[in-house]
Amino acid sequence: MNLRRSLSAAAVAALSLGLALGAGAPALAKGDVVRGNGNEYFLTNNFSSTANRFTYGRANDELLVGDWDGDGRDTLAIRRDNTFYVSNSLTGGTADRTFKYGRRGDVILVGDWNGDGKDTFAVRRGAEYHVKNSVTGGDADRVFRYGRAEDTILVGDWDRDRRDTFAVRRGSVYHVKNALRGGDADTVVNYGRERDVILVGDWDGDGDDTFAVRRGNEYHLANKLRGGAADRVETYGRPDDTVFVGDWNKDGKDTIGLRRVATSRPAEPAPAPVRTIKDGAHRVGSSVQPGVYRAPGGDQCYWEKVSGFGGTLDEIIANGYADTSPIVRIERSDAGFLTEDCGTWKSVEATYPTAPATSFTSGSFVVGGHIKPGTYQAAGGDSCYWERLSGFSGYLDEVIANGYGDQRPIVTISGSDTGFRTEDCGTWRRI
């Protein structure tokens, strides 16, 4: 949903200048102005792919990010004083729409305020918000007050209702509101450190926005609005990059964009190094790093995650045998990982095709990475097995739904599913 993607424009400015929209730590307010410096942009659809690189506007332009035309893809808009130049494609060239809105010194936020699938602007003046539901000039469609004038404001769809609303950040405490009105927060979350740089996005494509902490060029992504450890950690770009967030390829998942000063031979951000695991026993944090991995697998493939190296059965956290293309999340809390005859395990992102597939056979797949969500049908048979997954840690409670021995099974793989695994069902095709 486009509302999530518009998120980080302004934040970027705060991030690279060391400022925020209010008092406190630098934060990426969804739809806020991306200042920084440079007119060269690098957009990646995951943290290991080659970036789409293009130039746009001037090096000192204020930038905003949103889905202006409701096509599911975030694009860029330039603000110069109170004039906005809106583009509906991720290329350089002339803007698709130009108009004036608000005053020169206004703070601008971006979001889908009415749930129509299109991002629009809101003007912030202290604790008063002037919300516009179309990408045009003229009077606001709605005016209301919320929080304090000095508050740092984040924008996101926190409850999957397709409407963006506000969260107030005060230190490491977030007061989340699910409606555009005053009053008490609906949810209060303590997350990260007081001085952390925070981004907002839908990192797993489940329809709700959550937080990410940026520390240098390392991104700690959480998939739920809660405290505690991140669900995954990714490395991308340089520690001094100006960053922003959006869905650049309509897959429902937000990823990172970078803004840099153009050079005569611009260097693309280096993809994260591909991690590999060979046969044998490995200590987590030493010979193998935490992360999600995929292997070719096969009839003799065996793997296990262990809590210790005493050789006892109760130390086995999870295991698998004879799987085709198994995917496993190795966690920091695991003591070790053992594998035999599975082939070389690689970082799962390195196994993604150029575009997610709409037909596939046996194996484990990341939804949105290897395969597209949707409704699929296979020939099935007595040995056919399938399961929808909420994770790859190997726990039974990660199985959302499954089936065995079905003839011509039909399964809807949701965009909020993490993965899908199938064996001996024949070819699944989207219908």
Layout of helices and strands:
Blueprint: H1 2-5, H2 9-17, E1 40-43, E2 52-55, E3 62-66, E4 75-80, E5 83-86, E6 97-100, E7 107-111, E8 120-125, E9 128-131, E10 142-145, E11 152-156, E12 165-170, E13 173-176, E14 187-190, E15 197-201, E16 210-215, E17 218-221, E18 232-235, E19 242-246, E20 255-260, E21 276-277, E22 280-283, E23 291-294, E24 302-306, E25 316-321, E26 327-330, E27 336-340, E28 345-347, E29 359-360, E30 363-366, E31 374-377, E32 385-389, E33 399-404, E34 410-413, E35 419-423, E36 428-430
Antiparallel strand pairs: 1-2, 1-20, 3-4, 4-5, 5-6, 7-8, 8-9, 9-10, 11-12, 12-13, 13-14, 15-16, 16-17, 17-18, 19-20, 21-28, 22-27, 23-26, 23-28, 24-25, 24-27, 29-36, 30-35, 31-34, 31-36, 32-33, 32-35
Keywords: Signal
InterPro entries: Integrin_alpha_N
Signal peptide: 1-29
How does this structure look, described?
- The protein has 3 domains: 2-260, no CATH class; 273-347; 352-431.
- 3% of the residues lie in helices and 37% in strands.
- It contains 2 helices and 36 strands.
- A 4-stranded antiparallel β-sheet has the order 2-1-20-19.
- A hairpin with an 8-residue loop joins β7 (107-111) and β8 (120-125).
- The chain is elongated and about 65 Å long.
- The two termini are 22 Å apart.
- Keywords: Signal.
- Residues 1-29 form the signal peptide.
- InterPro entries: Integrin_alpha_N (IPR028994).
**Percentage beta strand:** 35-45%
Q: How many structural units, i.e. domains?
A: 3
Overall spatial form:
elongated
* Radius of gyration, CA atoms, in whole angstroms: 23 Å
Helicity range: under 10%
The strands making up the biggest β-sheet line up spatially as 2-1-20-19
β-strand number: 36
| Overall pLDDT level | 87
Number of helices: 2
Uncertain parts: 1-27
Spatial gap, N to C terminus = 22 Å
Largest sheet: 4 strands, antiparallel
Structural class: mainly beta
